[in-house]
Automatic annotation (TrEMBL):
Protein name in UniProt: Chloride channel protein
SUPFAM superfamilies listed in its UniProt record: Clc chloride channel (SSF81340)
Species: Leptospira tipperaryensis
Gene3D superfamilies xrefs: Clc chloride channel
GO molecular function: chloride transmembrane transporter activity
Keyword check for Membrane: yes
């Protein structure tokens, strides 16, 4: 068996530290970590697509018992395999435990999130991918005998591989892995920036090779043609509207969290009731089901009444917060993008002379930044996901949504000082 620590000391890999322009001795391992992360992410994604296709065949009133039973199974997985953790714990471990993530949580996280995502929960695969690929980085760091910032950087590089594989943006994925850790002092992690880029880029190529996803944008928006300075003023207003949706999200999440915290007994009671609620909502409004990756294109291409869009915005927000509060596993980034797209579609119905893509993308950025506190990486991710080539107004909307967002972060550990 190859000893990674001995390989690290090999003359082929140990390059001079005195020359700042020479590659790090760890460069090889950041690339290999990205390859491993990309392989896992592609396999995870393909399995989600297969299971989702199967679950999509269950529709109508049958959605209610199907998602209720799914909730029970999710709770039983967590009960018997242990608490899988969440993104708050990952951030806490990166910041205060030097980057140590527990690989023992991976089986519970992988199985519970696969079931949550594929059966129709309003949560996406970014959270499990980041936690699991981050733990790969943790394992690499331990086998290499790394300490301090090198240890932390290896874990962050693993996280970046997971983000990039899902979003198809090596730059945005790497920045997101850094920005989500501690939005007030992200500069503290600048040493992890190049490792994150190396890992995310290699993960991206592996993911593309395995899934045949291609380089085209994920969502087919009509191209936004930049206007004049008025676009910046509109972007500020759209950011404020996005922040308003962020406040709605925050309020519904606190309400749902309080309700589900009052449910006594084991966690499977909570996840089962959550499944029942999600099933009822999905039965009445099918577009609230699943995490929005495929459904967002339906919003872009479709035509809906204003009344329907208002209902969809509220009940999708309710579904996302129910998914999280009830203990179903997954991330909220793509569901928040879906929510912002619905809000942009609604505004276009009121202001049909405005650019539809501009309204939708600005609100996607503002809503996500309001909740996740990641205005910079959100803008870059959306430029890749939507094919946007002029993203400065979107950045303005993203920053506006961020600064007008609730002070108490949705991801609790973002607000901790350390």
């Amino acid at each position: 068996m190859i000893n990674l620590a001995n390989l690290l000391r090999s003359p082929l890999l140990v390059l001079s530290r005195k020359n700042p322009f020479m590659l790090s001795r760890l460069t090889f391992f950041y690339v290999i970590l990205g390859v491993v992360g990309g392989l896992f992410s592609a396999a995870f994604w393909m399995l989600i697509e297969y299971l989702t296709q199967f679950a999509s065949g269950v529709s109508g009133i049958l959605t209610i018992p199907f998602m209720t039973v799914s909730g029970l199974l999710i709770g039983l997985i967590i009960h018997f395999l242990g608490e899988p953790g969440e993104i708050s714990l990952v951030i806490d471990n990166i910041r205060f435990r030097g980057g140590k993530l527990e690989a023992s949580q991976n089986p519970s996280m992988a199985l519970s999130s696969l079931l949550s995502i594929s059966t129709g929960g309003s949560a996406g695969p970014e959270a499990p991918l980041v936690q699991i690929t981050g733990s790969f980085g943790n394992w690499f760091a331990e086998k290499l005998g790394l300490t301090g910032e090198e240890y932390r950087s290896m874990t962050i590089a693993g996280m970046a591989a997971g983000f990039t594989s899902l979003f198809g943006s090596p730059l945005g994925g790497a920045l997101f892995a850094l920005e989500i850790l501690q939005h007030r002092h992200v500069v503290e992690y600048y040493k992890a920036l190049l490792p994150a880029f190396l890992s995310s880029t290699s993960a991206f190529f592996v993911f593309l090779w395995m899934t045949h996803a291609g380089l085209q944008p994920t969502w087919q928006f009509p191209q936004y043609v930049p206007g004049d300075i008025q676009d910046f003023l509109y972007a500020l207003l759209l950011g404020a509207i996005g922040a308003g949706l962020g406040w709605l999200f925050h309020g519904l999440f606190l309400t749902n969290r309080w309700i589900y915290s009052k449910i006594p007994g084991k966690i499977y009671w909570k996840t089962t009731i959550g499944g029942l609620v999600l099933g009822v909502i999905a039965w009445q409004i099918p577009l609230t089901r699943f995490f929005g990756h495929d459904q967002l294109n339906l919003i872009v291409e479709g035509r809906f009444t204003l009344l329907f869009l208002v209902g969809l915005i509220f009940w999708k927000t309710f579904a996302i917060t129910t998914t999280v509060a009830a203990g179903w596993r997954g991330g909220v980034i793509i569901p928040l993008f879906f929510l912002g797209a619905c809000a942009g579609k609604f505004l276009f119905g009121i202001l049909p002379t405005e650019n539809e893509s501009f309204l939708m993308i600005c609100l996607m950025a503002a809503v996500n930044s309001s909740v996740t506190k990641t205005p910079i990486s959100t803008t870059i991710l959306l430029s890749e996901l939507t094919g946007l080539y002029s993203f400065t107004p979107v950045l303005i909307a993203s920053l506006s949504g961020y600064f007008l967002s609730p002070k108490e972060p949705f991801i609790a550990t973002q607000g901790k000082e350390g």
